[in-house]
Amino acid sequence: MKTMYQIMLCLSSGILLVASLVNTAQADTLLTEKRVFTLPEYTTVGGETITDVRVGWETYGELNEARDNAILITHFFSGNSHAAGKYQESDAQPGYWDSIIGPGKAIDTNKYFVISSDTLVNANPNDPNVITTGPASINPATSKPYGLDFPVVTIGDFVHVQHALVSSLGIEKLHAVVGASMGSLQAIEWAATYPDMVERMVSVIGAGAMDAWTIMSLEQWAQPIKNDPNWNNGDYYEGEAPLDGVTHTLALITQQAMHPMIINQLAPKQETLPAKALESVTNNLPAVDWLFNASRARASVADANHLLYLVRANQLFVAGHEETLKEGLAKITAKTLFMPAANDLLLKPYLAKAAVAELKELGKEPQYEEISGPWGHLDGVYTIQSKAETLREFIEN
Amino acid sequence: MKTMYQIMLCLSSGILLVASLVNTAQADTLLTEKRVFTLPEYTTVGGETITDVRVGWETYGELNEARDNAILITHFFSGNSHAAGKYQESDAQPGYWDSIIGPGKAIDTNKYFVISSDTLVNANPNDPNVITTGPASINPATSKPYGLDFPVVTIGDFVHVQHALVSSLGIEKLHAVVGASMGSLQAIEWAATYPDMVERMVSVIGAGAMDAWTIMSLEQWAQPIKNDPNWNNGDYYEGEAPLDGVTHTLALITQQAMHPMIINQLAPKQETLPAKALESVTNNLPAVDWLFNASRARASVADANHLLYLVRANQLFVAGHEETLKEGLAKITAKTLFMPAANDLLLKPYLAKAAVAELKELGKEPQYEEISGPWGHLDGVYTIQSKAETLREFIEN
Predict the structure, then answer these.
(1) Cα–Cα distance for residue pair A251/A224, rounded to 1 Å
(2) Residue B181 annotated as catalytic
(3) Is A273–B45 a contact, with Cβ atoms under 8 angstroms apart?
(4) Among B126, B142, B147, B144, which residue's Cα sits nearest to residue B236?
(5) B160 and B291 in contact (C-beta within 8 Å)?
(6) CB distance B267–A312 less than 8 Å?
(7) Which chain A residue has its CA at the smallest distance from B229's CA?
(8) Do A212 and B270 touch (CB under 8 A)?
(9) Does the domain made of A4-210+318-396 have the CATH classification 3.40.190.10?
């Protein structure tokens, strides 16, 4: 157990890191552009065929002539392909891992050709920077959004679509696949499904398989949507979207991704017995407004059905989709690095540890290092720079 | 951070403890009966007057002539006064802390007169063993349930009503007040509000004040009810109760009160890519059914408004209801013992540590010990016997 002193130390170093992240971002602007990859037809792991599959992608750095310097970045649950750089100089923020991807950075774009793609059923199809295919897409058979007619997809499906994208570029080997959270599931799935193509796999704040606790946590995120009458069994595209449900879903995800250490720093304080709160249980408290107003502001960019499909893809995950985790991991030949966050409350380090233990039992040599920080799960994004040297060494050797 | 070995060790000792709990319960049956305490009129901390306040209570052991051997037990969020013993020999289970309350046990009913009472706005007013007053009670002014006309109440109000009950028995000093979770809030509130009456205070899996993170967690529990159209702004007593909302609320509480270690032991396993789950996102997974079916089974015993009022009472808590926690704690003269659970994910040990640190700064000598176990928050109930000797020593000295 951490003492209060250690916690204070963590917190100050975390804040310093965030500050340095921001500085780094301003130092050298890497420019990129969003592109579209199209697959005329794709058959899912579940055996259903989808036509006209489209996902967005972007790159940083240059593909060399041998086409052997490519690194694939796979994104987290509420993320998208925008891992580094900016689309325009004037963008307020660079991509989420800009502190480790760029010229001279841990994933050095002077040496590597970095590819990052949107997944199928991306959480935020109404974000103009997201290109994805899912229940909110137009079903060519009906000219209306699919809704629940869209087939259930898995992390394996995300990876197969990325495989088609990577292959379309003439790339036969990936120098590495690197992802955080849901991105880590894709990274390990890549290593298990296409072992001959993946030389290095980095799992940040990740897992080798979902356990019952995480499967339940994911369902807690789905319930507010399923219980919102506007959801209407997935058929809401001509009416009002289930924004109350989506707002609660996003509030659950946001809180679970953050440790009390950082939330208690950032959220507004509460006076003792505020008069409004004593008036009615329907009057909100300041910390509650802080969380829920932010969640509501993001709700219209998300799509309720896409969130449900993402939940399901994650719930079904076991690396390699074999009968046991061990059978899936047995197929991996890549060098592997696991970096969970010590204070993570969403995918706690025991999940990465379980995958590492299985790999060791299989005679492999996984590398394991914990990220320290006050953010919890989000340390995989906001404190990743503290592991820049570990990552650089792993990538370059 | 625990290693896998420590986790395995924890888990086996936890299971042994649960087994021994069950054995203890069968060894000697303490019989008790539920009684009703009535206050014709009560004015809340918020200044509203409620007439005909009724709460249930029960006792174990005998009050001595000097009336100075009484110990008050205060209950947790989803609990009630039934802390020990059975109402009838044939009851399936004894009260929740039967492993530490009874003849010869840590809280020895051969020596002490133990009182335990239901709180105001108890979560489960439809449980025949619960007697409480809250929004589901009949408002004498209208002869209909209060609904949201019931005044907001605080942990201070729970304690004031208990104070009236204790005083009605001619008791002027409590040998100890002992509570788990929300019960710990009442215990510390007692020590801060009635310092001359409380000689010892035991906070199990507790806090001195709510922080922003916990205030938000509590709101996550309230949201499913507020978003359920059957809730109807609290006016549902003549229609259908908002059971979908209450079910999700209970599922959130249940999961948050348990650590993945125990959930992953108890929940059904999932086969890889189950066909039904690939068919539709609306088909549930086994672990999800396990949690939600259990929650639904308990939903009709709970009352949606009572849950919202309990959430609010907890959200407003700071010991002594003074401007700062320190000012509240400064009033405490009781000996204090704090026992958070090391693996708690709901009221993590930093909360008890913060109260202990403040008490030390005030020159007091709080005692602090962590409960180990696989249950998380519920270790405060299921693993409490591991701290029986600590508790006995604290109570008897």
Answers:
(1) 10
(2) yes
(3) yes
(4) B147
(5) no
(6) no
(7) A229
(8) yes
(9) no
Residue of A nearest to B353 (CA): A4
* Residue A344 distance to chain B (closest CA, Å): 11
ipTM reported for the complex, 2 dp: 0.92
Query: Could you give the residue numbers annotated as active site of A?
Result: 181, 344, 377
Calpha distance A101→A120 (Å, rounded): 23
Closest Cβ–Cβ partner in A217, A316, A322 for B277: A316
Cβ distance B148 to A245 less than 8 Å, yes or no, reads no
The b/e string for B267-292 (b: 16+ C-beta within 10 A; e otherwise) is: beebebbeeebbeebeebbebbebbb
Q: What is the pLDDT along chain A (397 residues), one digit of tens a residue?
A: 333 333 333 333 334 334 344 444 445 689 999 999 999 999 999 999 999 999 999 999 999 999 999 999 999 999 999 999 999 999 999 999 999 999 999 999 999 999 999 999 999 999 999 999 999 999 999 999 999 999 999 999 999 999 999 999 999 999 999 999 999 999 999 999 999 999 999 999 999 999 999 999 999 999 999 999 999 999 999 999 999 999 999 999 999 999 999 999 999 999 999 999 999 999 999 999 999 999 999 999 999 999 999 999 999 999 999 999 999 999 999 999 999 999 999 999 999 999 999 999 999 999 999 999 999 999 999 999 999 999 999 999 9
Where do the domains of chain B lie?
4-209+319-396
Selection from B117, B53, B28 nearest residue B79 by Cα = B117
Residue B201 one-letter amino acid: M
Chain A positions in Cβ-Cβ contact with residue B46 (cut-off 8 Å): 273, 278-279
> Between chains, do B260 and A348 touch, taking CB under 8 Å as contact?
yes
From A324, which residue of chain B is nearest by alpha-carbon distance? B272
**Which superfamily does CATH assign the domain made up of B4-209+319-396 to?**
Alpha/Beta hydrolase fold, catalytic domain (3.40.50.1820)
Min Cα separation A318/chain B (Å): 7
Quote the tokens at residue A126: 């109404």
d(CA B70, CA B67): 7
Choosing from B181, B217, B372, B386, the catalytic residue is: B181
Q: How far is A260 from chain B (nearest CA, A)?
A: 5
Q: How many CB pairs under 8 A join A and B?
A: 195
Q: Report the C-alpha gap between B260 and B262 in whole angstroms.
A: 5
The two three-digit tokens of residue A215, written as one number = 């499967």
| Cβ within 8 Å, pair B248-A309 | no
Residue B102 pairs with which residues in a beta bridge? B108
Cβ(B74)–Cβ(B137) below 8 Å: no
Residue B355 in contact with residue B329, Cβ under 8 Å? yes
- String of DSSP letters for A4-29: HHHHHHHHHHHHHHHHHHHHHHHHSP
Residues of A in contact with B345 (CB under 8 A): 345
Q: Per the residue annotation, which of B98, B108, B118, B344 is the catalytic one?
A: B344
Whole-angstrom distance, CA of residue B337 vs CA of residue B187 = 11
Question: What gap in Å lies between CA B97 and CA B382, rounded to an integer?
Answer: 8
